[in-house]
Amino acid sequence: MKLIKVSLLATNIILALSLGAAQAQNAPKLKVGMMLPYSGTFASLGNAIDNGFQLYVKEQGGKIGGREITYVRVDDESEPSKATDNINKLIKRDNVDVVIGTVHSGVAMAMAKVAKESGTLLIIPNAGADIITGPMCAKNIFRSSFSNSQPGYAMGEVAAKKGLKNAMTITWKYAAGDESVKGFKESFEKGGGKVTKELNLPFPNVEFQALLTEIAAAKPDVVYSFFAGAGAVKFVKDYAAAGLNKTIPLYGAGFLTDGTLDAQGDSAKGMLTSLHYADGLNTKRDNAFRLAYAKEFKLQPDVYAVQGYDAAQMLAIGLNATAGDVSKKDDFAKAVTAATIDSPRGPFKLSKAHNPIQDFYLREVQGKENKSIGIASKALADPGRGCNM
Amino acid sequence: MDFFTFLIQTLNSVQYGLLLFLVAAGLTLIFGIMGVINLAHGSFYMIGAYLAYGLAPIVTGMFGGGFITTMLFGLVVSILLGYFLEWAFYSYLYQRDHLQQVLMTYGLILVFEEVRSILVGDDVHGVQMPDWLSGSIQLNDVMTYPTYRVFISGMCLLLAVGMYIVLTRTKLGMMIRAGSVNREMTQSLGINIQFLYRVVFASGVAIAAFAGMVAAPVSSVYPGMGQGILIICFVVVVIGGIGSIKGAFVAALLIGFVDTFGKVFLPQIAGVLVYILMAVILLWKPSGLFKAGS
Fold it and tell me: What is the ipTM metric for this complex?
């Protein structure tokens, strides 16, 4: 009996040793937790981000930081109340090395809180809540997209430079809308303009008629708006149907006309918006990216695909510096913040609070495209107010 | 606010109220007469809008197009759908308690949303407005009023009058009202109540789908569009008195005014004003403004 036990122990030890040796030759796979909306209103955004991420990994031969990749995917349903549970499952049950996510700001805020406490690496490929790279910033949290106030700030500069004096703003009363309007107001008033009235309606209400009448009665020089998705479609159409587009120009953050032009039709024609990506950039980098993406997925890429692609680039830069070791967080952060990320949108660096410092394009709606007609704001950085890092 | 702006805002209120009535009318009909809490009512609105979007190219292919033709086709499809749903699902619910009704109709919402996602996808789509309605009426030097919104209001008024006449002035209306008061007694008078309910349900679905079709060119079609309208429709039905068409009409206009002027004068609390209105009215008249049948 004793003999059997000893021999069993011996085989166990030998087995363990040989496994260890095998692992040393072949680093364990890198577990990437993709926490994105794969269903619901934001499903197409989640899929674009996922596609962009995969495309970059594929271009690197399926390896990042010398390690092969396995994906663990969770549908976050854009539901903030489930966010904490979902990311905890990824971190504690699935033991992922890094989390990529997400689109919805409320969900992302819950994720950032958990990531900050647990120290897990988190790269946010869309959600723009200012607070994530402000008071909630941490050395293991990065963003490959934008902060909500950035597109608004860029558009405010444009309006001020055109010599417009009185502006009205209109948005949904929620964090993203408020932050976007705040960005616009800050730069517009710095440039000598004045925001005379801020109009709001509860999210996701789409009865705009009463507020359009307010705009018509007040006759400002320009209207700045933040809406997205179905709300953006209806707002732009209602604005045109009320005849306001002929007399008062409508400016917006790029989301007002992104992915919505088919539905908006002629009503969006000639509109000006700003975003960190645009159609017709016609740079070598962007053309190559667009071609590769179209070939791989039989789809045209959008800004979300770019953000997913760049999230993978940031991960690769960090892991190359630590030879694939996710636990060396200081080295990882140092490498990513020092690097210039070669994005299809144009090269960008990260701010101290880990938010992109990037050019914002001024875009005009031509046909079914948001064509770049110049730069609205060069190397725009989010101030990262409240970040102690 | 000057007098002219005030007039335009009044027009906005009436127009929003009428559209609400159009959707809520079917809900109050089904709720009041058949006693079924139909959470899937918003989905019928959504189905109507997607019918307007999906049928347009087919109708163009077969008959060379036409907005009215598309709507007529949509109506036929939605009546058939309503008839089928009543036979397959809702007819088992009349004797059950409200919790089971809520469970099943909630399940239907999920099914409809998923089917929509599979068939049409999750993108936002626009629906073309007919040319003869796409003009607008000049109101003052800056603001114009789209003709299509006037058309919507006209359709809603027409439907309101039509429903009123059918329910109060015709034999069918009499039978429906009798059936809602006492099912067994009506049956023993030789009226086929099962068929009658099926007709009422099918028309309820058709009215909601019609509302969706009429609204589609201005609201565009998008995932989850039924849920938003469902909640406000329940508010209309509860304020107006469950089952009362007249009540739904008054309540819808009331909400139109409160919502529109609330957004202008009290933007900070615009989101809750409608619910405050509901609470106040229910404190004053616990069964709503008009009782069913009055």
Answer: 0.84
